[in-house]
Design goal:
Elements (H helix, E strand, L loop, with lengths): L13 H6 L2 E2 L6 E2 L4 H10 L9 H23 L5 H13 L3 E4 L5 E4 L5 H17 L6 E4 L8 E4 L11 H18 L10
Antiparallel strand pairs: 1-2, 3-4, 5-6
Helix pairs in contact: 3-4, 3-5, 4-5
The structure holds zinc ion.
Length: about 190
């Protein structure tokens, strides 16, 4: 992308959407929160609005992100959880001071502290990851079938057979590749490939 920043991939699960801010980890990795302001933008989308973010806070966020990725990947394949990742997730979860409040309309909102808003937001994300990795929530942690992605995602489909972290990106690409392979099989290779 020449101008602006890479788009966000927005999923419905907070902590795995957060790990998705670095995508194509096994290909040409795309950093979707390259600046503190982009983290501010991302948090706002998930109801965790903060006024500002420092470079140090962005570093904390990325450390948490990679820790969640490592722990969720281990959980998805049935490996032991990596201790440094568990430590980092716990430390962010215990230091966050966000409070859940109920709106008159019956919706949950997060109230972040004025002095530690980014840390509080990261605490909410860490707690969400703990909920997923510990199996508290109904669903299954799995790894994306795309070989250049392998993102950990949370499968809440009834059959628990979802294969891709995101249907619009990884799923679509794989389907197209399969379609093209099928179309070209048994035929001469096209001479005018774009
Ligand atoms: Zn994927």
């Amino acid at each position: 992308m020449r101008t602006g920043f890479p788009d966000f991939r927005l999923g419905s699960v907070l902590s795995t959407s957060f790990t998705g801010t670095l995508s194509e980890r096994h290909g040409d990795a795309v950093e979707r929160i390259p600046t503190p302001q982009r983290l501010v933008d991302w948090l706002a989308v998930y109801g965790l609005a903060v006024d500002s973010c420092t470079t140090a806070q962005l570093d904390l966020a990325r450390e948490l992100r990679e820790s969640i990725h490592a722990a969720a990947t281990a959980a998805a394949i049935g490996d032991a959880l990596p201790a440094p990742a568990v430590h980092a997730i716990n430390s962010r979860s215990t230091r966050g001071r966000a409070a859940a409040v109920l709106t008159p309309e019956g919706e949950r909102q997060w109230r972040l502290g004025p002095a530690s808003a980014v840390e509080d937001a990261l605490g909410v994300i860490a707690a969400d990851a703990i909920c997923l990795i510990s199996g508290e929530r109904d669903g299954r942690l799995a790894l994306c079938a795309s070989p250049t992605c392998r993102a950990a995602f949370f499968d809440t489909s009834r059959s628990r057979t979802r294969r891709w972290c995101d249907m619009n990106t990884c799923g679509n690409r794989q389907k197209k590749a399969r379609f093209n392979a099928g179309r070209h099989s048994g035929r001469p290779a096209p001479s005018d490939t774009p």
